[in-house]
Amino acid sequence: MFRPLLVCALALGATSPAAAAWQKVSSAHFIIYADEAPDKLSEFATRLEKFDKAVRQVRRMADPPMGDGNRLTVFIVPTIEDVQKLAANQPNMTKNLAGFYQGRAEGSIAIVPRRTHDTKMGDLADQETFFHEYAHHLMFYDLNVATPLWYSEGFAEFMSTAGFGKDGSVTLGRAALGRAYAVDDKSTFPLDRMLSGKYEHLSEDEWGALYARGWILTHYLTFEPTRKGQMDHYLADFSQGKDSLEAAKAAFGEFTVLDRNLHGYVGRSRMSAIKVAGEALPVGPVKVQALSAGAAEIMPLRTRLKVGVAKEERDALAQQIRAIAGKYPADALVQVTLAEAEQDAHQYAAAEAAADRAIAADPNMIEALIFKGRAIMARAGEGDKGATFQAARGWFQKANKLDPEDPEPLMLFHEGQMRDTGRPTANGIAALHYASDLAPQDLGLRAQSAYQYLRDGKLAEARKALLPIAYDPHGGGYANIARNAIEKIDAGDGKAAMTAMQASD
Q1: What are φ and ψ of residue 168, in 5° steps?
Q2: Domains in the chain, please, with CATH?
Q3: CA-based torsion, 212, 50, 1, 234: positive or negative
Q4: pTM of the model
Q5: What is the structure's pLDDT at 378?
Q6: Per-residue confidence at 97, pLDDT binned at 50, 70, 90?
Q7: What average pLDDT does this structure show over 38-48?
Q8: 94 to 85, 127, 358: CA distances (angstroms)
Q9: What kind and span of H or E run contains 115?
Q10: Residue 326: phi, psi to the nearest 5?
Q11: Beta bridge partners of 170
């Protein structure tokens, strides 16, 4: 979830929506949909790609090629009010958020505003909210240790203030000026309380202090030479199950000294940052294409659909989408949107028919192949004699052949086996684990992978899969279940760990 304390706009320019048209932007790591001028969107995508590459370089992350299914899809809506309307039915989201992110195997998405209210913005100046959440997204791909909440948010704040030079460089770790009021706030969030990791039901002021103090401590431990290696020591101990406060004391020493050092660090006139040279950040091609008339008309409803609506609203949304889809029977994007809406409304025959029309318009549309398989699997689950789980898996296999790095067909292939026989084959198990590797931000999928490891007696692999869930800042119930399971694994009791995980059923 995006931070509620920072009102952010993407500032895509002063061009009015009437002068623009809906575009789709494709780059190495992003797909962006917006009613905006192509040059502004190309500039925006280039900046996002540079940020991605800079963070990967600083963290020494791999950068494997991605297909459409595993890129982050960004929907740009007109205002913050539009963001908040979309988020209204989503769990664990505050009312005054400025944007939000959903990580999932079906395709991670971000919803961000084009402008705040009616204010015309400048030159992509304020993207800290987006970069904060995208830093979390990247952390999942490079997470071999557990991360407590203060560090997870401190790291995201550290990355969020990225600056872009005219020479093509990107600077990470600049001062988080929006947090300056709270970085030295010992009363609202004392250091020992923050490092304990034991805090729930925080007030808005306490959340602000946690973000600010987490950021300044992360920044200090990153750049202070006398503290080199301490963060790695702390995270390693924490990942092995050591109490957060004990791990902090062992790594950082006396808190009174650390607090005094932090106070002096805050008072410095200049702060260090990491500058990544422009020549080290080559950006691949950015493709901008205008959407068809049908796709442009359906896009606001497609955005709602991808975010998710309450069950009682699904039929009404499907009816709205049907009205538009009827005008564009040969538009693949329109028809696959209808297929998803019908699937959500439990109209599986209609979903399959819409998927068929999408496939006829674009035989290589992976999303359409997936919804064809989903509809057949749902019909098979209802006992429809004209549908089989084997037939559904065939469509997921076709989708996988077109994009082997898309986690959704792999996940669904495993699901199809489980619903069919209750016993996945070796291929089905491999598909599940690989899907989780490709979409580590999907906590539910990662939990399934961990459970399968436990079933197979692979406790070390299960523990590794559960760690990021256990300490995810927005993990909710999944996090509690994962921590309980890890305790059982550490005691050598795999069966008890499986029982702990079944609490999520």
Answers
A1: 90, 0
A2: 1-132+282-290 (3.40.30), 292-423 (1.25.40.10), 442-505 (no CATH)
A3: negative
A4: 0.88
A5: 98
A6: confident
A7: 93
A8: 11, 19, 37
A9: strand 109-115
A10: -60, -25
A11: 164, 276
